Amino acid sequence: MTLPVKPSLLILDCDGVLVSSREANIAYYNHMLENFGMPLVSPDDAKRVGIFHSHSTKQVIEIFFPESVRGAVMEYAADLDYSEFAALVNPEPGWEDALLKISEKMRICVATNRGHSANALLDAANLATYIDRVFTIHDVKNPKPAPDILKLALDVFDTDAGDALYVGDSELDLKAAQAAAVPFVGFRLEAPLSIGTPAELEVLLR
Length: 206
Hints:
This protein is of the alpha/beta class. The protein is built from 9 helices and 8 strands.
């Protein structure tokens, strides 16, 4: 497995790539569902849990809550401290060593549908020091699968799409990369190029 061009900018998704947040996301969104009298989502419901994992909070609220309460839910979510659920987030093993090596060769940023909590999670995972910039849902108008956040990263780092690489773990990530014409590597995701560990990415980028 090789890349056609060695990138000068590495763009990483957060949840499911750098950190494992499945349990935290289930607890977070079920907390909101319960507060508004909505049915809870079972951890065994792979489809709905997948939506928690890959979509922005606004998108999740639009999917799971009736229109009549969405405004109130958005206000509630804005005041809800995600740090209450951060203990359920675990760093994906191997990234600290891999990013230490990769950061010597190229710039690294994160592009995530997550909001302000992304920085806190990266700090807790001891990864923030290797990342030059974190782009969140608050930086763009449209969340992934729209290409907005990847195009913003390209603009900020003055990088052509073909000179970047995006690593993600969901179909939303893949679609965003395709729309932005950024080469894509799936992290434990079936894709033309895919990896299973951070060490594999470090080897790929040598």
